[in-house]
Amino acid sequence: MNAESAVRGYYDAIDAHDYETFAGLLAPDVVHRRPDRTIEGRETLVGFMRDDRPDKRTTHEVRRVFEGGASAVAEGRLLDSGGEELFAFVDAFSISDGRIEEIRTYTR
Residue 69: its pLDDT value, please? Predict the structure, then answer.
């Protein structure tokens, strides 16, 4: 799986609440650095997305993915259940062997 496929699959799985597929995209020691917290480990990240996100009825609108070997950057918007933008984001991914090892999120 190339980096762009892993990144797009990441958002698709979150939006579809498909946490089994989501977990399969993540390295066991994945780290997600967000503006509000750092989440370490696959099980912790899956649990956060499944149980602890502030709003689980959101959709990621990914506008572009820039791929560069073992890394990718995604630019998009997080939309609420009515399609209104909550915020714009840029996520920088590090990927190895088709699994996401690190995500760094920037929002505005």
Answer: 85
